[in-house]
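Module 6 notes. Inverse folding takes a fixed backbone as the condition and produces residue identities as the prediction. Think of it as a translation problem where the source language is geometry and the target language is the twenty amino acids. Below is one complete input and output pair. Work through it position by position during the lab.
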């Protein structure tokens, strides 16, 4: 069993076929980069995986089960999707407290997660005063709250400064080295090339390439390999 197993997913939004038979896995101990042009189907795949959208057909399992069947989702998978859910008037600490309570996690998990993302000192300031990178760190703390073994992250480096990006790389590496699995969707190829073990490239709702980073790059730069793979895919927006 892989940490993440997506099998023959199809998803239609009316006449739009967002996914046309997407299959891939993310194994424990690996950081898996999920790449593809705008509209390729990355978010749709991730949303189905996290129970936020329903597949037309096919399956998406996380920790061996559909997300909606997990006994304790927050302890199984941590997700960072976008920062729309942060209440500007609330402190970072209070935001995490609310999430911890909703997920039936002990309040002590909040301080641990804040420390992990380097936000202990700023934790009691209102989110509205945070920089983009600080909000991103609170989002990462939220993903880590339940100490899950699987992380699903959409553009996690968004807004992070160079030191923050280096910190994130180190964090993801040690998370995977400790046996965790990471699915990392990003358009920042340099970031992905530095941290991913495996790649999944999607275009127009299909998997264009899937395998260890070095195999997908095939001796070229990731940018060249990616542009070659996606050249025929015009995007679907
Ligand atoms: N809720 C929705 N209703 C209708 N169409 C949708 C919906 N969500 C996604 N789509 C369509 O499905 C296709 C795949 O979109 P998706 O957001 O999965 O792409 P993506 O690879 O995540 O793109 P991006 O890199 O721009 O985030 C696109 O054609 C998009 O317009």
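Target side of the pair, the amino acids:
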């Amino acid at each position: 069993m892989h940490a993440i197993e997506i099998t023959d997913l199809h998803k239609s939004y009316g006449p739009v076929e967002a996914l046309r038979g997407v299959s891939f896995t993310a194994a424990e101990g690996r950081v898996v980069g999920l790449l593809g042009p705008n509209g390729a189907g990355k978010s749709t795949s991730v949303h189905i995986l996290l129970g936020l959208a329903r597949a037309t057909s096919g399956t998406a399992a996380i920790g061996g089960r559909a997300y909606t069947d997990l006994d304790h989702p927050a302890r199984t998978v941590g997700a960072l999707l976008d920062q729309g859910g942060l209440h500007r008037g609330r402190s970072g600490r209070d935001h995490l407290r609310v999430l911890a309570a909703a997920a039936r996690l002990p309040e002590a998990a909040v301080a641990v997660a804040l420390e992990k993302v380097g936000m202990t000192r700023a934790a009691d300031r209102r989110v509205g005063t945070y920089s983009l990178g600080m909000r991103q760190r609170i989002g990462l703390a939220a993903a880590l709250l339940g100490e899950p073994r699987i992380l699903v992250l959409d553009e996690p480096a968004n807004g992070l400064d160079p030191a923050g990006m280096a910190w994130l790389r180190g964090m993801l590496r040690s998370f995977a080295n400790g046996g965790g699995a990471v699915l990392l969707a990003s358009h920042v190829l340099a970031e992905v090339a530095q941290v991913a073990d495996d790649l999944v490239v999607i275009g127009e709702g299909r998997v264009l390439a899937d395998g260890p980073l070095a195999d997908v790059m095939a001796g070229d730069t990731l940018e060249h390999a990616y542009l070659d793979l996606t050249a025929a895919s015009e995007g679907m927006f």
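Reference fact for the lab report: The two ends are 34 Å apart (CA to CA).
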